[in-house]
Batch of 2 targets.
Target 1
Amino acid sequence: MVSKNSEGTPKWKSNGNNHPQNLRRQLIVQQRKSLPIASVEKRLLEEVRKHDILIIVGETGSGKTTQLPQFLCNGGFCRDGKVIGITQPRRVAAVTVAKRVAEECEVELGQKVGYSIRFDDTTSATTRIKYMTDGLLLREALLDPLLSRYSVVIVDEAHERTVHTDVLLGLLKGVQLARSLEGRKDANSVPLKEANNVQNRVSLKPCQGSKLSPLKLIIMSASLDARGFSEYFGGAKAVHIQGRQYPVDILYTHHAEPDYVDAALITIFQIHMNEGPGDILVFLTGQEEIESVEKLIHERVQKLPESSLRLSVVPIFSSLPSEKQMLAFKPALSGTRKVILATNIAETSVTIPGIKYVIDPGLVKARSYNHRTGMESLIITPISKAQALQRSGRAGREGPGKCFRLYQESEFAKLVDSTTPEIKRCNLANVILQLKALGVDDIMGFDFMEKPSRTAIANSLEQLFLLGALTDDYKLSDPVGSQMARLPLDPIYSKALIVASEFNCLEEMLISVAMLSAESMFYTPRDKLDEARDARKCFTSVDGDHLTLVSVYRASAECLEKSRLAGSKDKKAEKTLNKWCRENFINSRSLKHARDIHSQIRGHVEQMGLHITSCGDDMLQFRRCLAASFFLNAALKQHDGSYRALASSQTVQIHPSSVLFRAKPECIVVYQMSSILYFGIKRVVISHLGKGGKKNQQIK
DNA sequence: GAGCACTGC
């Protein structure tokens, strides 16, 4: 039957099959059906119903992250307003996956499907599938210790073993037990002592009347260490899901390469001259190395025969301004092969399309932490087998690829299976503060998957005690400790804010702490060293780096304010600010981050009832406040002009980028202490073993 | 007068 409109003429309607939106729709349905996980939907649901804890080992491309939550939701796990939570180690993953799943479900983002990350929450009361960062779920647990809104929590990428993931695993284990005890309480089937232990540990507040359903836990990991997770969760069932990855040929060198940078260069040109089309991804250790390899490639390109394919070089590392990072994602022009020189950022954080060849020297620059001295170092070390696998996998995303490992096969066998979890190589003060706030008093007794050393725990407890966050018997102090635990900051910075409210300089300290918490503000391109230096001089304060950062922040705020007063909308004002950043050699991404932190922390501080006042021109007051709060990082000048850190007796030097580098005051407080060492397995680069301290502020 | 892998709340 043909319907007619009001004028009586026939109205025709296409079946819509050719509409771009419908084509996209069909494509999505097709793609979902072809995922390896699609064929095991029923089996997975059964396993989840049968087991309270399930380990899912899913290879790259299995579809586990996007599909499993949808299966569970359709399988009834969102009933009674319950939420399925999926944690990710990285913000960008939470956002992109949530957007994709919302599209697959044909819902608007923030309705049934949403994401929640720091500074950006798209969820609503109707959200049933919630993607989030693991750190954010930890923060949520402070407000809701039993995570009562969730029916299922899926911890994705658990093999990465970030600090947040590790703490979360221990916490979830306790929450699960407490909720199952809660559900069985009336049946009186649980020994009282056991129930009390868990209740005391997990929940700060007594549970509200309604009974809680048990919590389902799903741990998703890449193939290598499923056994470790299974053992940790009492022999939990592990399910394997096939991936969809193209084969990658692995090639090793015949001999040990004495210089991996040179070996990488030779390999780039060998691939370029002898192999078929496809881009090359080279893993290097840092900015300096990338820049020097870039220069060397440009020199050697001149010697290529005229007839050969062109070669374009694109660097990518995290501190590179975003617009320059984008170049790595642009397809190469026809007749050109792209060589991407990347740090570890390309291992997991970003996926660059078009890669067919990977060159892997087998090294990484990684942070290590000395629990005794409190000193951080960046050390170039061999990667783990898991990392080598992850790197080679980057060549097989779109078709068969090749990975050239610049070391011998016998060396590969010597690599450790997986990287040491971060929790064993970082300062634990923050972790301990959060656990204490969650009601875990016995840190040594907490069920870590891998327990940090006794020294590490003891030193961090000591630090928290000295900051006044803990009482004599190592319980969270009130109000200082609980206030510090509420702030998402390094405990020293949290303490500084509390002290600053007493010194009437909280306004300045809020800015300092936000600026110090973000990444480096100053961007210094090699070819514009002098210009960058001159620009920085405008902000320099003789009172130290903290106040220098304050003046950068205030100048940027003034620029934004002016632009808004002139009637600019937010977008335009932001553009104006970015232009200001470029002119002043400020990294706009870092500044944006600092502004976000500032507004978030300001909110917390106001809620706590602290008074936000400015010390005006009284810099002495601000410096006194720094001394009172950063005392753990104080250092005194010695005869030879170096400094001795009071807490650890380490000899440190002021970093040349500091405004106090020349002034050399008698006493300083530093905001970061780090040492630089070089170890090369292939390349003997023992260049210098000095210790550089970044200094900051003179104290009277 | 020197350099900073990468995340996250």
Note: The CA atoms of residues 226 and 448 of chain A lie 16 Å apart.
Target 2
Amino acid sequence: MNWVQVKHAMTSKPGEEITLKGWVRTRRDSKAGLSFINLHDGTCQDPIQVVAPNDLPNYESEIQKLTTGCAIEVEGQLVESQGKGQSVEVKASAIRVVGWVEDPDTYPASAKRHTFEYLREVAHLRPRTNTFGAIARVRHALSMSVHRFFDEREFYYVHTPIITASDAEGAGQMFRVSTLDALNPPKKDDGSIDYDQDFFGKEAHLTVSGQLSVETYCSALSRVYTFGPTFRAENSNTSRHLAEFWMIEPEIAFADLADDAQLAEDMLKYVFKDLLTRRADDMAFFDKRIQPGLIENLSHIVESDFLRLPYTEAVDILQKSGKKFEYKVDWGTDLQSEHERFLTEEHFKRPVILTDYPKGIKAFYMRLNDDEKTVAAMDVLVPGIGEIIGGSQREERLDVLDKRIDEMGLPKDEYWWYRDLRRYGTVPHAGFGLGFERLVQFSTGMGNIRDVIPFPRAPKQAEF
RNA sequence: UCCCCGAUAGCUCAAUUGGUAGAGCGAGCGGCUGUUAACCGCUAGGUCGUAGGUUCGAGUCCUACUCGGGGAGCCA
């Protein structure tokens, strides 16, 4: 690694002799006897300008044939730029072509504007564009920031399993994991497939949530989180859903819903603030090209308090709003996207944490409130995306938990180890799930979730 | 899964009431310029998503399918 990254070259002092390696973004020739090459290596938003004089030995044979996407190595001196648009540039003393673009006419990621839909079809080349380079860097920054946030608060990062033999995570359709011959599976006497003969000796699936697993570690290490891939086999075709996505799930012991909501608010503010300073270049790009006002919105969120609002009061506000909704608002039914968006985008114009939902529309593990009608659940709603976090205080009382499992007709024996946590030193605890891609979406202003993950998996979409 | 919209050159889009395809960008060549989404000229490039149907004739109308987009549901 005896060359300089573009981001470091950009901020170095003129006069230094440096070597750069990267890919050509554009080339412009000048009859003054030189060519301008914009070079990027993915380390920052802006490419660096390389000036290639025509006395280089390969000027006509190679340099004038460079097109977008070619990989080159440049030796030269960092100098103050004579032109406008950049403060420094590299006056090349040698340019070596590392890799040509074999047919520039059909190069799929040429230096022009492409639609995001098209770039999704060339997902192996789209990170070379300024938008997807920026997304990759922001994803990294947010990931590190999440880990930093929890580490600073002495949370332990727990690696929960990807494959689960429990069919009881209860958060949606699961992908089956099996080594049985799909064309000729072993059968039982009643004709059903005999999973006793499968790899794990029972049915297995890809996880839809690390929550139940991470609760076990919470009941021992007090403050934990998991951050890993999750899978939902739902036939969801929206700009907010993926079949494979990454989820951040903290779990805190000796805590209630208010503690949980505070943690969620603190975390979001922390990562937004971190992002605005660490990736100022990329955020300026998103603010200018993707969503004007983005930086101001995020800065505002960092400064403002998130509103806490019980579901029952939200229903009241919606019913009295005078706003025409496609779906009627009724206590006891879940709020529709239009309702959530009205609250966070129009009525309060800031993030809203809705709490205490009717028990009938929420999961079995959420703690029953004293009114016995609602549970200690919360959704964090943000403008533009809607629900970004879902969480709850967990039911720590075994008798109440059992009653809820029965009420919902769930298989109690499947939860034996989960129920054990309530039998052996149970404590009030709470946690939430944050969809990482939704966080990236919100942070960048990107409209479609398939554009904020390197290789999106969705119904009928698993190329690459 | 449901509703609506779309699919034409490498990319982004045109094509009047059905009369057998055009532009811009990109690419190639040339010109011009310390250029920077450069600019100017010329050239090449298309069995109009797939399969049927209506018609003398279909990019255009009809049906099915595939894929893409927006919205809804499910949720993160």
Note: The mean pLDDT of chain A is 92.
